[in-house]
Amino acid sequence: MDDEAGSLPAKNDFSAWYNDILWRAEVMDVRYPVKGLYVWYPHGFALRRAVYQLLRDLLDTDHQETLFPLLIPKTEFMKEKEHIKGFEEEVYWVTHGGLTELDIPLALRPTSETAIYPMYSLWIRSHADLPLKLYQIVNTFRYETKHTRPLIRLREITSFKEAHTVHATWDEAEAQVRTAVSLYTTFYRRLCVPVIISRRPDWDKFPGADYTIATDTVMPDGRTLQIGTVHHLGDHFSRTFSITYEDANGEQQYAYQTCYGISERSIAAVISVHGDDRGLVLPSDLAPVQVVIVPIIVGKRGDEVLAHAAACEAELQAAGLRVRTDARNLRPGAKYYHWEMRGVPLRIEIGPRDIDAGTVMAVTRLGEKQGIARNGLSGTVRELLDAFSETLRQRAEERMKASIHAVSSIDGAKEAVATGVAVVPWCGEEACAGELERLTDASVLGTDVRSPHVAEREAPCIICGKTGRPALLGRSY
Ligand code: A5A
Ligand code: ZN
Question: Whole-model pTM?
């Protein structure tokens, strides 16, 4: 990749910046010749691995990982009425095996309810089998007709984490919804990405769910991105797929289910929320390279500097950090540019004068520069990395706060959705939401808003004047 070919557009031109940074920072290559399908560069894939490792670590405490087939027989896929209605326009079908037409067409999973639940029906016999909590991380296919975008709206979602749980009662399933929401909140906290939790309006819930709780973040252009959803499925699927258990009295009961999903949109959020005019900015837990060491070779002490750099690298590596030494024969400035683009949180520069003084120069990706002692290097570096992530978290939270505005007029709402989200009193009637959406050219995202920046209080509906509660209004991806 040629670092010098032009430069990254400024981030305030967000769409141009986003498209450009993906190849300049070697995250995704968009040149694959199928619309909506993209290729992970190794650097992007390493970022994906770190993000999904955090997700796995959170899930593994209380779920088991599994793997189901990609292909779903049409007969199973068509069983749940609402679910088909929601997905029929998005499904890719496999109709042939070689030249032979298949007796039963096979769907490429757009999500895996109809692959997993027929097996759950076989696996679950008694209350002792519950709760059951499984997840898988797989690719799924959706024939999206809205504008496709790398990491954001894909036709092959490459990194679809879907969890599917089964419970004895509706209330237990509801408790699992709360657990999942808090799990996702923790996940996004580790990614330093602020989120707003809300309950989607009924017309926007997952096809086949009782209700849907969504996690949104606000992108730099003020549009919202749904980066995770948790669905209470009630007994819709258990009735369709006969998922029953024998209760303590020996009677057969239908089970209650939840499912929840996260995709590589989580990575789009990390890139978009933290990146700047010079490239990626990655929280230290996620960075494929956490520390880059740049030896400053001037005069005759080149070998000595390289030996010092190697010793520092070995020490940091032994402390469990992901370190690289960039000893290429390039100007230091070119190296800084290269690693800043790729989001490395901390750069360590070592030159002859540092060796004499027993120090190294540490520069964070936000440009804070300080000399630190060579003694105790790995401990100090860890502190700097932690502080760096905390700064990113706070900075992102402040921006999120600044992009949310409580309003009480249509003009106020229009103004708010131009740069972020409006919090609008709404009575809950679909007709009022439709009118509000028409007047503001935005969408009602949800109610029951959970965010430190949104107060839950009653006020007259912005359209009809009846009692209303805060609803989120925004332009979404
Ligand atoms: N079975 C449940 C979990 C499900 O499919 N839910 S979902 O349809 O809401 O998808 C889960 C999450 O995947 C969404 O919240 C969204 O963040 C992400 N997602 C959905 N469609 C996507 C697409 N075409 N490209 C990238 N991410 C997508
Ligand atoms: Zn109203």
Answer: 0.97
